[in-house]
Structures are given as C-alpha cells and as structure tokens.
Amino acid sequence: MIETTTLWTVILGLGAGSFGLRFVFLGLVGDRPLPPWLLRHLRYTAAAILPALVAPLVVWPRATEGEVDPVRLSTAFVTLAVAYVTHNVLAAMGAGVATLVAGIYVLG
Amino acid sequence: MASDGVKSPYLRGVIDGLPFLAVVIPFALLFGVVSREAGLTIIESLSFSVVVIAGASQFTALQLMSDNAPTFVALASALAVNLRMAMYSAAMTPHLGHLPVWKRALVSYFLVDQTYALGALEFERRSMGLSEKFAYFMGTVTPICLPWYAATLLGAWAGAAIPTDTGLDFAVPVAFLAMIGPMLRTPAHIAAAFVAASMSLAFAWLPYNLGLITGGIVGMIAGARVELLMERRAAKTDPETAT
How close does chain B come to A84, measured CA to CA in Å? Predict the structure, then answer.
C-alpha cells in the first residue's frame, strides 16, 4: 500500500517538475538555441529510462515473486517485437495480452 | 492532413487530434485501473492525471511507489521520463514564444507527446499567425488532453470491480514495452535502450532502486555517443553533409 504522504508528494512534485520542464524554454529561456550536447542527451532519456524500468519487471516478475517466468518473458518479447515492427502501440499491447493469457492458460 | 479544407484553425486542431483518441483512451483507462489496484482512491487517481498529465511518467511513479521505492527515486525516475518535454518546450518557442505569459503557461501545461507532434508538424508546413497557431494548438488539446481525465476517472471507477488475479500485474510492463518499440527508431535509440536495460539488470542489487537510475543515465550517454559516432561516420563518407 502506498502511503498518502508519499503519494501526494510524488503527485505534486511530479506535476510541478513536469510543468517546469514544459515551461522552461517557452516561458523562461525564450528563443535561444540549446547547446547540442544537451539536446543529444535529452533525445535519449525516454528511450533509456523506460527500458531500465521495465527490464527487471520482465526478468523478475512480481507475480512469481522474482522467479524467471517463461510466460512473461515470451509476452515481453512478443509485445516489443510487434511494437518495433508495426509502430502500433495498441496492436503490440493486444498481441502481448493474448500471449500472456494463452501462456497462463497452457502452462497454468 | 484530414483537416486541410477546414478554415477555423481550432477546428483543424480538433480534427487532427481525433485519431489519437484511440491511444489516449485505452492508456488512461489502464492508468485508472492499475492506480486503483495500487490502492489509490478515485480522487487520487484523477488528481494524478490532472496534475501530471503525462502517461509514461505516471505509470513509472505508480510502479515504483507500489514497489516501495523511496520517494525521491520515484520522483527522479518519473521526471527523467519527462525530460524530453524540455525539448518540446524549446521546439515550440519560435512559434508560440510571443504569446502573453498566461497563454504560454497554458500551452506548457498541455504540451504532451501528441499535441507537440501535431503542432510541430502543422507550424512547419503552413504559415499561420500567432493567434491561429494558439487556436490550432488548443484544438489538438481538446480531443487529446480532456479525454485523458475522463478515461482515467472511468478506469478508476471500473477498476474497483476488476479482480486482482487476472495477470494484471503484467499490464504495466506490457504497456511500457509497447511504448518502447516505436522509440527504437535509430541505432542510437536501440543502443540507449539495450545498454539501459542491461545496466539496470546488472545493478539491480543496488539499494533504493538506484539500478534503474544508473541504467537510465548510462543508457542515455550510450545513445548520445552512438549518435556522435554515426554523425562522424556519415561525415567521413560524405564530406558535403558535415556540419
């Protein structure tokens, strides 16, 4: 269970921080170009942090209490493969969920 | 675009934004459902979507809080997911930077992946006045951001009725993986993702979920290095494009 104080700290902090990131140039810095090295790193933040977040969840799922699980591994592989090939987020989620449901049904 | 014959810039924005409903609604529903599973009240789920209004970072924060990660790790990781929005802000400045400050604040609040993408595309390909650009942007906001709240509320309300043992534990990883796929557009993005995932696994033993932060930072640097490398290689084979 998430504590109420933690929850609201994160909601308000994340809200303020995200607004700050969206407002920083439009509202404060104005029409000045960003240094190329900064842009170069900003470009890869989401492509790096999301895989870093998801990798342990895939390899050591919570549902199996951290045991490597073939059903969830194949689900992850199918989802990522479909998402990469089709660029269609919903199709990928559909394929992933189908794999998960079929896997749980077949292997228990 | 579908809106090419329409005169009102606001209506053009609405029309161009409509297809994104197909992505926004399922994600907001899912956020509503999983936030209820994590123990949030309906008001808390809705506040999350209204205050933060950024899907991937909301899922990140929720996942880490459910794992009892320290508050600062949950905050830092979720903010890292949103760093790209500083780029969007910079990209919108030449177009909307001369608006009065309250309008700039409004645009900033609604500056999400989809509204940014539509705005950037439209402002590049059509010459528009400042107020037209603002109207177009607010048009895209209407079918993209407002349903985000409504569908979160609906998901949170329905979430209470969904049993917890339906493999829902894996819905968030599946949603993340589906979002990651289209991000892997270039070798640099693939390098960033691969290095980040491997480092996060290798450093999973670190306390306070610091393995995640380590993986993210190293992955980001890897992406930037590969981009530099590719640029240099391109410059070598074709000196004309070197800048």
Answer: 4
Cβ <8 Å between B215 and A48? yes
Is B186 an interface residue toward A (CB < 8 Å)? no
Residues 6+ apart with CB under 8 A from B228: A40
Same domain, residue pair A25 and A64: no
Domain match, A17 and A48 both:
no
State which amino acid sits at residue B177. Answer: L
Q: Is B100 left (phi over 0), alpha (psi -120 to 50) or beta?
A: beta
Instruction: State residue A23's pLDDT score.
Output: 95
Alpha-carbon distances, residue B149 vs A8, A37, A86, B25, B58 (angstroms)? 18, 36, 28, 9, 13
B24-39 pLDDT, tens digit each:
898 899 999 999 988 9
Q: Which domain holds residue A9?
A: 1-32
Cβ of A42 within 8 Å of Cβ of B170? The answer is no
Interface contact A107, partner B, CB < 8 A = no
Tell if the CB–CB gap between B26 and A93 is shorter than 8 Å: yes
Domain count, chain B: 2
Helix B171-183 to helix B187-202 angle (10° resolution) is 150
**pLDDT of B213:** 84
Examine the domain organization and report whether B97 and B193 are in the same domain: no
Residues A89 and A54 in one domain: yes
The range of the structural domain enclosing residue B190 comes to: 184-236
ipTM of the assembly? 0.87
Asked if the structure places residue A64 within a domain, the reply is yes
B67, B96, B212 ranked by CB distance to A26: nearest? B96
Query: How confident is the model at residue B4, as a pLDDT?
Result: 73
Q: Is the Cβ pair A43, B223 closer than 8 Å?
A: yes
- The Cα of A42 is separated from the nearest Cα of chain B by a number of Å equal to 6
